[in-house]
Amino acid sequence: MSMNVKSRQQENSELTRDALLDSAREQFIAHGYNAVSIDSIASQARVTKGAFYHHFANKKELLAQCYERQMQMIAQALDQVPVTEDPWLRAQLLATAFIDTVMRHRKQLLSLQEVISVLGWEDWKAIDSRYTLHHIAKLMHELHAAGRVKPYDPNNLTNLVYGFLTQAAISIKDAQDKLQAAGEMKLIVHDFFASLKPNGH
Length: 201
Description:
There is one protein chain. This protein has helices at 2-31, 38-45, 49-55, 59-79, 87-104, 112-119, 121-145, 154-174, 178-196. The protein contains nine helices and no strands. It is elongated, with a radius of gyration of 20 Å. The model has no long low-confidence stretch (mean pLDDT 92).
């Protein structure tokens, strides 16, 4: 009996946490982080302020968890990209999947500039590293080991490529014509990758 009660309590706790995350994400997107209060988040989630503090230490932690959920969603899309014999083809497919996911969920995405500003560069990058950065790191090291990329440090390449895609996401979200921006970003990524290939490749 106690096990059933505990299970029900856990389920209710998860529902409360999800409601707070959904409420916060919607309000952060609509009004911006600084304009949103813990009271308004709890009120929209239909829970008490005490319930908020049971799950989150503060609003910053809540933003971090909202962003983590966002990156989990993007990571799921990248995980669906098939493995190919040509790592450059996989790089292009991953970049395309990233841009397509940003486009598909653009109305549900937090402002990346705001996330970085509030969380700080290191905490933001730590979240990204858990979900998406490893895809690029693996590819850059494979390309470097096979001599398929110009002889740059693969760690520097990883950071550069990821920064490139991050800026692409920001540009798409900020663009008036998002569809055109996404299409152009795919072409720019293709040309950017081509510039990293050694002559003859």
